[in-house]
Amino acid sequence: MALRNILVVSLGGIIGSLLRWLISLPTHENGRPGGTLIVNFIGAGILIYALNYFQAHPNPRWWWRPAIASGFCGGFTTYSAFAVQIQGYLAENEYGAATLYVLVSLIGTYVVMTVISLIYKRATR
Question: Which residues cross the membrane (predicted)?
Answer without folding.
Answer: 7-23, 35-54, 66-86, 98-120
